[in-house]
Amino acid sequence: MLVLTRRRGEGVAIGPDIRVTVLGMKGGQVRLGIEAPKTIEVHRDEVHARILKENRLAAQTHVIPLDAFRNL
After folding, report:
1. What radius of gyration do the chain's Cα atoms show?
2. Does the structure show a pLDDT above 80 at 71?
3. 42/33 Cα distance (integer angstroms)
C-alpha cells in the first residue's frame, strides 16, 4: 500500500486518467474528489462489498428439472 500525505487542494494521479484530490478535512473525515472516466466504476468500500455479494448470489444457479417445465 502506498501511503501519502496531502493537504487540501493537493491530489494524486492514478495512471493517465484518474485523479484524486483532497477537498477538505473536518474532524476525523477527509472529503475526496475523484475524477475518472465514466467507464471506471468508483464506489465506497462498503458499497463495493455489497455489489460483490449481490453478484455472487446472482451467479449461483439453481437447477430446475426439465420435467418441471414440461408440466407448465
Report:
1. 21
2. no
3. 11
